[in-house]
Amino acid sequence: xxxxxxxxxxxxxxxxxxxxxxxxxxxxxxxxxxxxxxxxxxxxxxxxxxxxxxxxxxxxxxxxxxxxxxxxxxxxxxxxxxxxxxxxxxxxxxxxxxxxxxxxxxxxxxxxxxxxxxxxxxxxxxxxxxxxxxxxxxxxxxxxxxxxxxxxxxxxxxxxxxxxxxxxxxxxxxxxxxxxxxxxxxxxxxxxxxxxxxxxxxxxxxxxxxxxxxxxxxxxxx
Length: 222
Description:
Mean pLDDT: 86
Number of helices: 4
Number of domains: 2
Order of helices and strands: HHEHEEHEEE
Largest sheet: 6 strands, antiparallel
Low-confidence stretches: 1-6
Structural class: alpha+beta
Strand content: 5-15%
Number of strands: 6
């Protein structure tokens, strides 16, 4: 058995990203070192039970003749080296396990954050769907060249907001007519839903070649 046999290699897994297989390899090497330490202690035990510190000379300072001095010294030297190796690899195992644990915690935190973000996004989408403003009237016709046509109103547009009129305060088309009469020449914000999408328009009630100030027919929704 030579000095430094089975020592932890310089390229230990702690230098990079640690995997479960790296930890398993470290544990395998640790167990090998422990087996070698045990084997060397058995060598000492076979030599009259000599341990790591018992003297190898007799009372007259002569080398003991009842033990194999070479085997004892070699076993002691190997044990000392292997114990250092064992201490080093135990540190590597501890650090590798710590890295794995920290990475698992980071992954768990990321997964929770993503799940929370997805839940919030889904909840927001549902809230937007629930809070979608309801239309109170519908565009039945639009005359070419009229203020309504110029503003971009189209047939079947569902009106959500017409100036100050909305679902909350709409009672009849007289509300819309009153707003139009008081807003001649002034832009009105009109919000419509067209094929499921919301559109913001600016309509200026104006006298034109046709009838009325808008040039469109609006009917209330039941």
